[in-house]
Amino acid sequence: MSRSVLAILGLALLLAGCASKPWLYDWGGYDANLYGYYKNPNSAEGFRVSMEQQFKELESRNKKPAPGLYAELGTLYLESGDRTTAATYYRKEHDAWPESRYLMDVMIKNLEKMTPGKKPQ
Amino acid sequence: MRTWTAFACLSLLAGLGGCVTPPPPYDFTDFNRVPPRSILIIPVANRSLDVDASNYVLSTLTVPLAELGYYVFPVNTVKIVLEQEGLYEPEQVRKLEPARLASMFGADAVLFITINRWDAQYVVISTTVTVEMDYLMTGRDGGVIWKTTKRMQYSPQQQQNQGLIGMLVNAAMARAAPNYMPLARQANNQVFVIDTTRLPPGPYAGPKP
Question: Which of A6, A69, B4, B117 is most buried, most CB within 10 Å of its CB?
Fold first, then answer.
């Protein structure tokens, strides 16, 4: 018995030694949800809701979602026909990540062209 | 108990081996000349017979690269933008100049993945599941800055005392529903984080330990 305990302890220590750095981001199951969405496109709404809840929770702690995630939520809205909300999330991505600005500017401008006279918020 | 101890010791040795082995260096000269802050992942080209593999692999790439500290362009958004441009098939996207793709999206680097193998081979009483992918990254000017290939294989564990029938059932199950995703994730992790090809930390990686 004590030998297995020792073995477990040794293993744990080793794993701790080898263990990678802590996560940079809280992904909230993004990869699994995206996989699920490709497997079954009907899961889009569940994917949307899950991201939205996660972002609310992160924002309440003054943390930002991982790179690209605001834009992914925007695109899920775009696909469902809600251009206004899509543009809102593209703008959030734009503000959160400077590397995204070029693309997000183009996407937001295109959305504004598609909905004349009704500028997204 | 004895088996467990042996297993723990083996893992310990394997782990130590993984921690200690000095890797022969990979030439990062071209990569470091860029060096990218942002990576654009292009929809995955697929040479396997499994039509779904392309999308499935696409879902596994963002997390490891972003966790290395890079800005990773939203893969599904990129896919939809390309589709709006009439580019529905990854093979069509491949026909564009990498430099043009980089400027279209404002990316520092473009990552192209090709699935070579995504299959399960059934040989008498065991199934071997294989995933093999090519990885190729170009800089803004379209020049190659990083590339590698990875093959991962898996044979479902054969338990002792399972008997011939048990083994046959095991193999048949692996063939009916082979689980490729852990292999795809492992392949990514190997090339991005563990092998000599592992990428240097990106701009959001935080302070060096």
Answer: A69
What is the rounded CA–CA span in Å between residue B180 and residue B168? 20
Instruction: Confirm whether pTM is higher than 0.90.
Output: no
What pLDDT does B20 receive? 60
Residue of B nearest to A34 (CA): B59
Tell me the Cα Rg of chain A: 20
CB contact under 8 A, B71 and A17: no
User: Within a 10 A sphere around the Cβ of B3, how many other Cβ atoms?
Assistant: 8
- Cα separation, B133 vs B197, whole angstroms: 14
Distance, CA of A10 to CA of B10 (rounded, Å)? 12
Q: Which residues of B touch A (CB under 8 A)?
A: 1, 4-5, 8-9, 11-12, 15-16, 18-19, 37-38, 52, 55-56, 58-60, 62-63, 66-67, 69-77, 80-81, 105-108, 181, 193, 204-206, 209
What DSSP designation does B170 have? H
Q: What is the pLDDT of residues A14-49, one digit of tens each?
A: 555 455 578 999 999 999 999 999 999 999 999 999
